[in-house]
Amino acid sequence: MSKRLLARTAGTAVLAVLASGLAFVAACSSSSTTASVADSGDSDSGDLIIDSGGIADASAGDGAVTPLTWTWQSVAGAKCRDGSDTGIGVNLSPGSTKTVIFLEGGGACFTPSFCSMNPSKFGPTEFAASVAAGGPAGSGGGKSGTAFGILSRADMKNPVKDWNMIYIPYCTGDIHGGVNPTGMVSGVPGTQMFVGRNNIAVDLVAIKALTPGTTEVFLTGASAGGFGAALSYDQVATSYGQVPVTLIDDSGPPMADPFLASCLQMKLAALWGLDKGVLADCGDDCNADGGIDTAHWAINAMRHIGKKYPMRRLGLIESTGDLTISAFYGSGYMNCTSSFPELEPDFTDGLLDLRAQMAFDPNFGTFYFGGADHQAHTSYENALDTRMSTNQMDGGAPVSLADWTAQMLSGSVTNVGP
């Protein structure tokens, strides 16, 4: 049986995986929660101060940020794709001059089914419910009163547990890079505001005001947030100037054609307006025949930041058979005309090709692990020192994900896995 036929057979099964992910998103985004939410008089303003035990009342306004406590901060100008206001989650560590910025994932809006996996709004109510459920990136406590993943302060092996933590929600459906406020998706009612890039811009203003004196930034994200972290790296690095910014993209591999089909890349670039944002910034590295090359933007944009920032550390975490991203990339099968649920059958080859394409940059590292799981730095996969945390290369000693991440942040860049 061919790889493609096997992938098609598996494609039906992956729909159940995607549906379960959607159910999780819906549960975390629901406005219904057993925790109490302070009524500030405006559902999109005021602070919701969140700790491991639930939600405490807070006065209206965006000034009250309690250290070591998750707080919602509205950000002027930040919008979701339904036009509603949004903001950021903030958890500050007294005395720290280091900041981790995490971009949430959850769907890519370009078809009705994929759009349904991305919340069209995310405000303080959604943030409160998500944190109370242990939702966004492990930022909340849930019933156990502990947090997991890269935003956990309880995981002793988390190398950024004492850093300032910023959580950027995802409600624009454009992998945080869109520049098209009047997007239309066939089968999806209404105008879709694909304004993820603008959100990053206004979020950075708020983040820098909240964390003055920052000496180091760790930019990361999972799934769509992983893609977003890579796409917005130049934007973030430019904003911070001489302050070093380390990138680790979790489960958002910017593969080249044919693994990420050129027809799909063109469709996404046109719908989300990527040519007006990251690809315009990319210059000659993202051009072909005198114009912007929208058919190969993923790998071109990744190579661009490697060239522009040769001394900065850039990393990618991914499983060799990620079902979620394989299904996303499978949308490009048969020149984007297939009506069947597909999986990209050569996903591992695509990861190895990406590593080879970035081999010119000694500061680009990868952590590839076996299996079909999706996301490794977040609560969905438990703490950094447990599930999916060990790997090896060329018969060497196992390397934990927590240790690999810590090494990346300290300046030791390696390729782990197949």
Low-pLDDT regions:
5-61, 140-146
Strand order of the largest sheet: 2-1-3-4-6-5-9-10-13-14-17
Please tell me how large the radius of gyration is.
20 Å
Please give the count of helices.
Answer: 13
Largest sheet: 11 strands, mixed
| Class per helix and strand makeup | alpha/beta
Strand residue content: 15-25%
Number of DSSP strand runs = 17
Kindly state the mean pLDDT as a whole number?
Answer: 82
Distance between the termini: 24 Å
- So what's the overall shape? globular
Q: Count up the domains.
A: 1
- Helix/strand order, N-terminal first: HEEEEEHHEEEHEHHEHHEEHEHHHEEEHE
Q: What is the percent of helical residues?
A: 25-40%
Characterization of the model:
The protein is globular. It starts with a helix and ends with a strand. It is an alpha/beta fold and about 425 residues long. The longest helix has 27 residues, at about 5-30. The chain is built from 13 helices and 17 strands. The protein has one domain. The strands form four sheets. The protein has an eleven-stranded mixed beta sheet, with helices on both faces. The chain has a two-stranded antiparallel ribbon with strand order 7-8. A hairpin with a 7-residue loop joins β15 and β16 (about 400).
